[in-house]
Fold Uroporphyrinogen decarboxylase.
Amino acid sequence: MLQNDLIIRTLRGEKTERTPVWMMRQAGRYLPEYMALRAKYGFFERCQTPELAAEITLQPVDIVGVDAAILFSDILVVPQAMGLEVELIESKGPNLPEPIKTTADLKRVRVPEVEETLGYVFDAIKLIKQQLNGRVPLIGFAGAPWTLLCYMVQGKGSKTFDEAKIFCYTQPELAHQLLQMITDTTIAYLKGQVKAGADVVQIFDSWGGLLSPADFENFSLKYIRQIVAALKDEVPTIIFAKGAWHSLESMAATGALGLGIDWCITPQLARQMAGNNITLQGNFDPAKLMSPIPVIQKEVKEMLKGFGPGLHIANLGHGILPNVPVDHARAFVDAVKAFTW
Ligand code: CP3
């Protein structure tokens, strides 16, 4: 049914004609077409209106020619569905006015009925699948429980998420209760995405790298493992735990078919740690998309050679930056497509 299933075949470990490519945060502010819709509708309005979410999801497929679409939404729709107020403040980022700090606060959150609270996402997925008409696979996603806890406790973005960490270290029982509630919600949510038509799911643990290896196991991977186990007979899953390269071996053992890596580890070392049976995804430094196009072309080749043929999905090591010229994003994608062994 899919005309381009390079990503699915790569995740399954099959040989493909070339390395597939997509970019994290590929639907976003570097696209003038996205900015035009952003000027007219609020952020969560764009997420909650299936027609808008579908249009934004398809933009990078049409404009830069990536090998997968990723659902336009946000990881913070889950805390919203669990009962917390979440707003996105222009040029400041997410804000949760009443974060979780105490046992009493935890009583304000629940494991919701996902059809009721997140049905708009499932509707968007159905519409996207219709509009894609099999051109490329659709990636669904959710935040990892640890990364969602960071926002639910800290209440806003942070470089260190110290308040979230202190919450975990001083009130571990409460933290584990919250992490389990997020996990249960996420499993139902991702199963709903798959039922609606998502072909692959990615778990974003953007703040996994803030934890020591032992704390990453205890507060993050323990819960990611449950999510992967619940999904693994349905669709391929990809875990992207930024900065948590120390745990690639244990992440590979979860049953996920793909592991995202950032640019702080070489493909060779990542391969050595993750073993030979899992697809690696990454790991171009997003800031390098600001380099002149010939430099991008050269560095893409280096990256592809570093990973070697097969078991690799080309991507950035984190989300694309808002100021990247569209022709640079396209040059990145085209350079991957043009590469032959
Ligand atoms: O990849 C895609 O194109 C799909 C869409 C997507 C968005 N957010 C849209 C978005 C995905 C996969 C996310 C995930 C997400 N959201 C993560 C994990 C990935 C990562 O980058 O680490 C995180 C931590 C968030 C939380 C979040 N949402 C932040 C910190 C911000 C503000 C900072 C920023 O980049 O603007 C958002 C807003 C957001 N989510 C935007 C988009 C396109 C920008 C909104 C706008 O200003 O138009």
Strands lie at 69-70, 87-89, 93-95, 138-143, 200-205, 237-241, 258-260, 279-284, 312-316.
